[in-house]
Amino acid sequence: MSLSRFTLFYLSYTFVLALGAKLLSNSFPQVEVLAENFWQAFLLLFLLTYVAYVVSYRGIKFGAQGGVMTILGCIVLKLLLALSYVLFVITKATVNQLVFALDYFSLYLFFSLFEVMCLLRILRNQNKK
User: Fold this and answer.
1) pLDDT of amino acid 125
2) 3-class SS letters over 51-66
3) What are the residue ranges spanned by the domains of the chain?
4) Considering the entire predicted model, what is its pTM?
């Protein structure tokens, strides 16, 4: 999968996630479904995932052994940055911590799932060559 194709799929996937979150929020107006800074977290995870994919993609193109290490490094770095953001928001901001944590980690899992599926598709295509 080329980088431009991933970008197109990723933007479509992100749009569907954002639309789903907005519809869920509008469906239950009496319940706090989305935390106050949900969209900031959404943007942060969107950017982190995109940067991690681009770096992993470039690492895979340099070679198989280096590509695997690049993928693992990017996933771990993304996890550490994501957890540090959660720690910062929960300790410094006045948000409903449970709602924020559920929103954030569900977003993290959705974005990571998409990233790993696309990276596995690249690796599968390399094994067929």
Assistant:
1) 61
2) HHHHHHHHHHHHCHHH
3) 3-128
4) 0.87
